[in-house]
Specification:
Layout: H1 14-23, H2 41-54, H3 67-74, H4 78-90, E1 94-97, E2 101-104, H5 110-116, E3 119-121, E4 129-140, H6 143-149, E5 156-166, E6 169-179, H7 195-203, E7 207-218, H8 221-227, E8 234-244, E9 249-257, E10 262-264
Antiparallel strand pairs: 1-2, 3-10, 4-5, 5-6, 6-9, 7-8, 8-9
Helix pairs in contact: 2-4, 3-4
Length: 269
């Protein structure tokens, strides 16, 4: 049996369990955000499964135990487990595959890639990005990097510079900064197109959310050279801080994007 931070409900019958699920009482808990009070039972199961993902109990691409197995282990109904799994799937942390089961999301999956890559072609095309690294090095963290990544003054980062193509069109120049302490040796690795899959598989760091700020800019000489356009060309700047399952900022990414043939797509729900 896997270790869990969830306190299974005491044996005493399904009657009490179903009453608690309907009322949303479950157990009192702080949850991830530290709020005091009662949390719906499925959210407690969600938090338990999320902790297992954060602790790398289940690896990217690995199949989870069945709903019935999880329900029996945690002492809740199968419907409660299903609701928690649905929420984790909606957050793109799990993937449901018809007839096969529920798997830990792999950032190489097309669905997962597009969860974080929001640039789409204006016309026809898949919109699938590819990339080419232009520079990578470890260095002392700058003031901006320390602020974005919540680092100490003496911290070091690894900076990755690369260009990205959408449907073979050069359109993005980006600088990515990650804490050197969390990603030892990354500067010596041949980097894949999708970095988040590398973070999870090699370093045990799963990106859960990302905060982005967008604004219009004019390209400086360096970015213009990388993107093979004239200095001063209008572009879209995307300033992103990615956060892992333990709510740590683990990546700062500054992307400068040409938008003559692509756009940024945001779906609001």
């Amino acid at each position: 049996m896997l270790d869990t931070s969830f306190d299974a409900l005491p044996a005493g019958g399904a009657q009490r369990r179903h009453e608690m699920e309907r009322s949303g009482a479950g157990q009192a808990g702080s949850g991830r955000g530290g709020a005091v009070g009662f949390r719906p039972l499925y959210r407690q199961v969600y938090d338990t499964l999320l902790k297992r993902l954060a602790d790398a109990v289940w690896q990217p691409g690995q199949i989870l135990p069945s709903e019935g197995q999880l329900a029996a282990e945690l002492g809740v109904s199968q419907g409660t487990v299903r609701k928690a799994l649905d929420a984790l799937t909606a957050d793109s942390l799990l993937v449901r595959r018809q007839g096969r089961g529920t798997f830990v999301a792999d950032h190489d999956d097309k669905q997962s890639v597009f969860r974080f890559f929001k640039l789409r072609p204006d016309g026809d095309g898949t919109g699938m990005p590819t990339s080419r690294v232009t520079a990578i090095a470890e260095a002392p963290a700058s003031a901006d990097e320390r602020g974005r990544l919540d680092l100490a003054r003496a911290a070091r980062v690894v900076r990755i510079e690369r260009v990205r193509l959408v449907d073979a069109r050069l359109c993005v120049s980006e600088t990515i900064s990650v804490p050197a302490s969390l990603f030892p040796g990354i500067a010596q690795i041949e980097l894949p197109n999708t970095l988040y899959s590398l973070y999870a598989a090699r370093f045990g760091i799963t990106i859960a959310t990302a905060n982005e700020r967008l604004k219009a800019v004019a390209l400086g000489a360096r970015e213009a050279g990388l993107l093979e356009v004239a200095e001063g060309t209008p572009a879209l700047e995307i300033d992103r801080v990615a956060v892992d399952l333990e709510e740590r900022p683990v990546e700062w990414r500054l992307s400068t994007c040409l938008t003559q043939e692509i756009h940024y797509l945001s779906v609001l729900r």
